[in-house]
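To: structure desk
From: M.T.
Subject: fold request, one chain
Message: Could you run this one when you get a chance? Sequence is below, nothing fancy, just the single chain.
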Amino acid sequence: MTVLARAGTRWTCLGVLLLAIAGCSSSPEKPQPAALPSVSGQMAVQKAWTANIGPVTTPLFASVHGGLVAVASTPGQVALINAANGQDVWRLQLDSLIQAGVGGDGQRFAVITRNNEVVAIEAGKVLWRFRLPAMSYTAPLVAGGRIFVLTADRAVTALDGASGQKLWTQQRTGDPLVLQQAGLLIPFGDTLLAGWGGRLAALNPNTGAVRWETLVGSSRGTNEVERLVDVVNGVSRMGNTLCVRAFQASVTCVDATRGSTVWTRPAQGHEGLDGDESFVFGVESDSKVLAWQRQSGQPAWSQEALRFRGLSAPLVMGRFLVLGDDKGLVHFLSRQDGQALQRLSTDGSAITGKPVAAGPTLVVVTRTGGVFGFRPE
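Reply: Done. Structure tokens follow.
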């Protein structure tokens, strides 16, 4: 389920939950998952290694840094793992629950705790802490010797990577209700791109000055929940074109050098995107997998055989599209037509975050903290 929260506070709107199914169906019961499709057997995948990080119940994402993968657990463990063999490069236990992460540049890493602290880590040791004025559900961005943070009150803050000193803050006002889900904060050349409600904004990373803003998702409905629109974590980039998802509203591709819209299509999903030179891939909230033509946005194919299986955001890896589900299964689909090629099991708990690829190794993390390395052949 997708939880909503008040921006800038720890109050969670317990009575307001959005079911991650079929556009919030009025039915009180969750639809039964589709029967698992048969797989073609046209590919083989080996389990290379397993590790454990601890339970993951907050917006935590594995991040790749060359051949290394950074992972974190909600109870406070952070680890940097060698994706070739699954061995720890280092592992650290923090004294606070972790709310968001892990961001890094291969040398310096950062997470955000439930106490609203940015914690910078280097070589497995805490470098500094910085207290934020609001909660954050988005992994910090570590780039250019700085750490950038997007908080739930739609403020972007830049911190000096070595000292933690605040360099600047830029904020945009918005509706008080926000997703308790990772938002968008990524680099693009010499520009910082951030999701501000239904807008994509380009900021000067040195000063926070806004270079451009463009609307990628419009509010709909008459109450707070129906009006909610946020740009979610996970984009597809090819050259200067960046494709993003606005929560339960649309998928939009933008020329990120100017902020002009290339195309936009209605879409009812809440997970991020991936893509290649031909297609943009996404998952609707009922777990229907869709592919759009990258140039035009026209539908290319759809796969409904995994509906209501709680699919993760997709990962393009080689000629495959990889998705995890809420039963701990990892699905491999053909990028060309969505055909089911292979399926693997993990530990039976939901795949959390998005699968990632570190060289030839596919890494997935489960809700109970299993970290699995697979190698497609």
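Reply (cont.): Confidence is low (pLDDT under 50) at residues 8-27. Let me know if you need anything else for the meeting.
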